[in-house]
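As the work plan foresaw, our protein records have gained a structure token line. A representative record is set out beneath this paragraph:
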Amino acid sequence: MTRVRRLVDGTRCKYTDILIWLGRVAVEPFWFQRAISESGMRLDRRHWCATLMIFASVLVTQAEAGEVLDSVKSRGQLRCGVSEGIPGFSERDAEGRWRGLDVDFCRAVAAAVLDDPDKVEWVPLYASARFPALQSRKVDLLIRNTSWTLTREAVLKVQFPGILYYDGQGFLVPAAAGIETLADLAGATVCVEKGTTHRRNLETYFAAHGWSVEPLVMDSAPETAQAFFDGRCRAYTSDAAQLAAMRLLAPAQREADLILPERISKEPLSPVVWRGDPEWTTLVRWVLNALILAEEYGVNRANIDAVDAEGTNPLVRRTDDERGLIARALGVEPRWGIRAVRAVGNYGEMFERNVGRDSPLKIERGLNRLWTEGGLHYVPPLD
């Protein structure tokens, strides 16, 4: 609002009038458009002053556009930090193409910003290297099985735009080992990946129950899984979904492994962005929200063009002026949400294709269902 006050100086507009009308627009964004239409353009001084300030504020915001968003657009490519290979989330297929839930989200953002889901540079990162890569601006968007925590947000000065996947820390054990509960792991060596919250969670939980534990810390997820398969530890602890993913990499001759039902932490996995660009945070957040809302409103990859043409679905029911206003505020071209859904489908399609019933992982949606189906995915409305 300080920028708006500076704009008032040198005009005949009263600052209090402007605050009143800007407040009205903030509560009901398209009220002003209707006011003009209903009055036949006969607006009093306060209306015109508010008009001046609204458009001036938009111009100032555009002039101070987000640094990351500007870099992505000028480069013509989105740099995404992903894992070094976690099935279902981010891994290369036999043809060398990146696939997974995290990968799909990056493609959705690229489609929204650059109108091309393939304009992405993939940057594989160890867990221990992910935040330095983001802070040094080597990546624009970190999407690597990363949990949203207070310490990370406050101390590392990063932002978590929203939760892509709700998970919890679990334990993978050999099915034949007779391990039925975590109490059976008292005094055991447990494999854990470096640079994650999992080691601290492990030690805290076991200490609280009076059990000893010996963490075996490895540099990467594949190395941690391999140490477990080689028998160097009795259990492997990580996000439950990651355990399901890494279980797919077990040697063919290995007997079955199982994930214990107990969870020792909450792991809300989120995209991560640099705190210094709130406009970029907002855009990434609303691409995620649009994918979730698309599922809620029955919009998918197959029907998105028909839904857009019909124009009655809540996801697309806006005038061209309204679409333009929102797109300019976000710093992208109109129909950004449509481009995202067209590129990867809605959230449910992404989930089932990569980690759910249509994938080798066969993970139940559970907490990752929509709120209307007993899950936790509940996002703000568009208006």
Remarks:
- The longest helix spans residues 45-63.
- The chain has 16 helices and 14 strands.
- Residues 67-165+270-373 form a domain with the D-Maltodextrin-Binding Protein; domain 2 fold (CATH 3.40.190.10).
- The chain has two domains: 67-165+270-373, 167-267.
